[in-house]
Design a protein that fits this description.
By secondary structure, the chain is α+β, with helices and mostly antiparallel strands. It contains three helices and seven strands, in the order βββββββααα. α2 (112-129) crosses α3. It is elongated and about 100 Å long.
């Protein structure tokens, strides 16, 4: 739990996003738990929760501040230095978080063929339902084929030009 953290305790910070990264830091300071009224009502009135403010640094000297961390949790999502992050004082909790992230991404990658099939079939259905779309797709396909043909012709002409230049050079060198 965050309330158990002390100076020099290890803390894990997982920045999620396009390029996730994990920072292992050391706690610089932890405030005393502060009581605030919680968001849920207890059976006997207001529900109070404890919060702590945590400041940590990484081995490179970067500073991370986490105000208002729930004291009774060991892992929490928070904004950190302008990015969403998962903060934990438990290595095992962070391992579970990273494994969950990995599993989720693998499931998405594994479902790629299914979604590619859906896209192809939907395009075929739209073509059947709307002749204008079919015409546009046919036009795009023809333009693509013409571009490929043009590239081939351009490469052939460049090859012929290089051969002619080589022949002319050889002829000029052979003439006295």
């Amino acid at each position: 739990m965050f309330s158990a953290l002390r100076q020099h305790s290890t803390i894990y910070i997982l920045f999620k996003g396009e390029k996730p990264r994990l920072v292992t830091g050391k706690v610089e300071s932890v405030s005393e738990p502060q009581q605030k009224i919680g968001t849920t009502m207890g059976a006997f009135g207001q529900n109070y929760q404890s919060f702590v403010n945590i400041v940590a640094t990484d081995p490179d000297g970067n500073r991370y501040e986490f105000p208002g961390m729930r004291a009774d949790l060991s892992i929490e999502n928070k904004a950190c230095n302008g990015q969403m992050a998962v903060i934990s004082e438990s290595r095992d909790a962070m391992i579970s978080e990273v494994e969950g992230m990995l599993s989720s991404s693998k499931n998405i990658i594994d479902s790629l063929p299914y979604h590619e099939s859906i896209v192809a079939n939907c395009q075929q259905m739209l073509s059947a339902l709307n002749p204008q779309i079919a015409k546009e797709q046919e036009r795009d396909r023809e333009i693509s084929e013409l571009k490929d043909e043009f590239r081939g012709m351009k490469n052939s002409i460049q090859g012929i030009s290089e051969m002619l230049n080589t022949i002319l050079k050889n002829n000029n060198q052979q003439q006295p």
